[in-house]
Amino acid sequence: MKRAQGTARDLAASKGHVTQLASDSARLQQSFENDERMIAQLNETIQRQTSRLDAMQMQVDSLAGANAKLGTELALLQTTHNKVFYIIGREDDLLKKGVVVREGGANLLVAHPGRTLQPARSLDIGMFTAIDQRSVKEITVPDSTRQYAVVSRQSLDNVDVSERDQSLFRGNLKIKDTDRFWSPSRYLIIVER
């Protein structure tokens, strides 16, 4: 009998233990299912975020391309804006080329006293030397011992020359302030006297 009672106790303990294990197993199964749902949700979130990141990367790439294009266009505009032209020559050569004309003065049938040399109204860019005003700070004359005059609208006040007598000068034009010097005209016409 004692043995039967011990076995009954062992059996009851085993049943309790099995019930506890079943309960633990159900809890673990529930936890496992919850973890699986959470992993699935996290995977969905990761996929959504990856899609958003891909879309954002496409936008960044598109903006980078647009920015590069704008940079190129800006550089081209700056180059075009800073492109200036000059020509140096004897008066008769510049008249023949149509770069300068004589205007004004009195008309006395035979003579025209008081006529001044002026830039032509229409200038052929091909006659001029093109330079970038940002980098060229000095215009070299062919013969620094000869006298020259600026026919175009630029002022000698914005340059340094070796010798100056009102509107006439000798030596190369060393431009002090490129913006001020080139602002009246993009075309510099210098005539040899």
What would you note in describing this structure?
This protein is of the alpha+beta class. It has 3 helices and 11 strands, in the order αβαβββββββββαβ. The strands form 3 sheets. The chain has a 6-stranded mixed beta sheet. The protein has a 3-stranded antiparallel beta sheet with strand order 5-10-7, with no helix packed on it. The protein is rod-shaped and about 155 Å long.
Total number of strands: 11
Largest sheet: 6 strands, mixed
The number of helical runs is 3
Distance separating the two termini:
145 Å
Which keywords apply here?
193 residues, rod-shaped, alpha+beta, 11 strands, 22% strand, 6-stranded mixed sheet, 3-stranded antiparallel sheet
Element layout with pairings:
Blueprint: H1 2-81, E1 83-90, H2 91-97, E2 100-103, E3 116-119, E4 129-132, E5 138-139, E6 148-150, E7 159-160, E8 163-165, E9 168-170, E10 173-175, H3 178-182, E11 187-192
Parallel strand pairs: 1-11
Antiparallel strand pairs: 1-4, 2-3, 5-10, 6-9, 6-11, 7-10, 8-9
